[in-house]
Amino acid sequence: MRTLDDVRNVLGSWLDGPKSALNHAREQADQNRPAYRGEKLGLPESGPGSAAPLGKRLLAFVVDLVLAALITAAFTAPAYPGDWSLLTWLIITVVPVSFFGATPGMALTKIWVARVDSTGMVGPLRAVLRGLLTVLIIPAVIWNFDGRSWHDRLSGTLVLRR
Q1: Per UniProt, which keywords does this protein have (predicted)?
Q2: Do 77 and 102 touch, CB atoms closer than 8 A?
Q3: CA R_g for the chain
């Protein structure tokens, strides 16, 4: 049998009005939020194997873009590389991630891509999916609290510190 306190806990925020309901919802959200990025995935809070920070991921991405532009420019000079840089970027992103788990920029910033479901290689299918979704931009810039973007979640991968 429910007591008056049980009923008050369930309905109290509703009976007290919208401000109380909002405070109750915030308290519930704070209680369910993990203490650090990657905690729900069983990752350590810091050090090797922890979720890679946004700054390192962004720096690695910029390094890969510049490298792709320079490689493409070497083949298209004196004309601008144009859209060919995108193809070069896909190649230097997909091939190394498939087999080694890191792009040149990721290796420089000491981060890597891993599968969520196993310790095996990322593999070509997941790497191609990550690359194509990154080209679309939006899946790569929307993150959850664990530090995984849509392209990581859809491809079953995560980016970790070395």
Answers
A1: Cell membrane, Membrane, Transmembrane, Transmembrane helix
A2: no
A3: 22
Q: How many domains does the chain have?
A: 2
Q: Which of 11-15, 103-107, 129-133, 149-153 has the lowest mean pLDDT?
A: 11-15
Q: What is the pTM of this model?
A: 0.76
How many Cα atoms within 13 Å fall on the side-chain side of residue 47? 2
Q: Are 115 and 124 in contact (CB under 8 A)?
A: no
* DSSP codes, 99-113: HHS--HHHHHHTEEE
Which range of residues forms the domain containing residue 6? 1-33
Residues 13 and 86 occupy one common structural domain: no
Residue 89 structure tokens: 């970027």
Do 69 and 19 lie in one domain? The reply is no
